[in-house]
Design a protein that fits this description.
385 residues; mainly alpha; 15 helices; 84% helix
């Protein structure tokens, strides 16, 4: 997975740079992110239902194979010199469809590879892999774009999927026993929504996750414009910004993996969110490149304290039979917040500029965390929800 995700981050870095160099449009930066995430709104709950009814490993192999083919298609368009904006939009949308089925299955599969009592450590180590790739991938992409061209970022991403597919095929897992077939897919999906609606802890965590995703993570959409227009750095400098953020997130994931069972989850969730918000505020005013890198490292650390702990609490709070559908709703929230974040950041930055957009997001995230903390303090959820 480390190899595959390094390729994924190389492609994401090159794609953002490609869009901004082709069009110079901040709105289109956000639009491509939105189009790539929109299918998750339409298909992720179906993906969660599929994950609860079929072998999760098989689902993941199919989705990873589809994303591999899309990466090769991207490389062919860029390498031929005929890449156009609509090509990027179509490929991003198809990737979003694959992700809508991949994410619920992958999240729910984690507990099958480990156990419920080791899930926080497993989620955190998985986040460490994801963010280790965030350190390596963008830096490698910046080097490749500056030296041999961005086509190689897409081509190597396609090749990298072979590693994760091979890893999945090599796993020895208990024989999959399919559950009883539901009366209908719609009813099966609806059971997941009913379950989440009646589970206060999961409901609160998903609401906060959605707000932070829409208004906090929008800074990552704007990094190509931030690098070009505010810091005046090139491809390598842009890659270093993403790598710094990934390095902080890697440290955050390792912090949760090491100390997560010894620190109250509430402290990790809210403390991490407020550290992340404070660093976003600093990004809005800082212009010295080394200090920007430091802010991204610390901000990434706080973000992953919040994210890993939230993910673990959601998964450990639900029953095994419902986990796929609950993680489908998690993916639905994720898919909903990404288009909203893309449009919000694109249009707001066009109106008031990138720094103000980042600052507004920071204030909203900090305020949402404070409101949620006060609500939980007054009426804490029971252990079963």
């Amino acid at each position: 997975q480390l190899v595959s995700l390094t390729g994924t981050w190389m492609q994401a870095t090159a794609q953002g740079w490609l869009i901004y160099q082709l069009t110079g449009s901040k709105v289109l930066l956000g639009t491509v992110v939105a189009v790539g995430s929109l299918p998750m709104l339409l298909f992720s709950v179906w993906g969660g239902s599929v994950a609860d009814r079929h072998s999760k490993r098989t689902v993941i192999i199919v989705t990873q194979s589809g994303m591999m083919l899309l990466a090769f298609a991207f490389a062919a368009f860029v390498g031929s010199g005929h890449i156009q904006t609509w090509h990027i939009l179509v490929l991003a949308a198809l990737g979003g469809v694959a992700m809508a089925f991949d994410m619920p299955a992958r999240q729910a599969f984690m507990v099958e590879m480990t156990s419920r009592e080791h899930l926080m450590n497993a989620v955190s180590l998985n986040s460490a892999i994801v963010n280790g790739a965030r350190v390596i991938g963008p830096a490698a992409a910046g080097f490749l774009m500056a030296s041999v061209g961005m086509t190689w970022c897409f081509l190597l991403n396609g090749i990298s999927f072979i590693a994760v597919i091979a890893g999945l095929l090599l796993m020895r897992l208990p024989k999959f026993v399919p559950p009883a077939k539901p009366h209908s897919t719609g009813r099966h999906v609806l059971e997941g929504f009913t379950y989440v609606a009646g589970h206060r802890r999961v409901r609160i965590l998903l609401l906060l996750f959605g707000v932070v995703g829409i208004f906090g993570w929008s800074y990552s959409v704007l990094l190509p414009a931030y690098a070009t227009d505010i810091l005046h750095v090139g491809e390598s400098g842009y890659g270093m910004l993403l790598s710094a953020n990934g390095a902080g997130a890697l440290l955050g994931a390792l912090t949760v993996a090491t100390f997560g069972n010894r620190v109250r989850p509430r402290l990790l969730i809210f403390g991490g969110l407020w550290v992340f918000s404070a660093m976003l505020l600093m990004l809005a005013v800082v212009r010295w490149y080394p200090l920007v890198l430091a802010c991204l490292v610390v901000g990434g650390w706080g973000m992953l304290l919040n994210f890993s702990t939230t993910n673990t609490l959601v998964q450990t709070s639900v029953s095994d039979a419902m986990r796929g559908r609950v993680m489908g709703i998690w993916a639905l929230v994720f898919g909903g917040m990404m288009p909203a974040s893309g449009f919000e950041s694109g249009f707001l930055s066009h109106a008031v500029g990138v720094p103000w957009t980042i600052a507004v997001g920071a204030v909203i995230c900090a305020g949402a965390g404070l409101i949620t903390w006060l609500a939980v303090q007054r009426n804490p959820p029971a252990p079963n929800g």
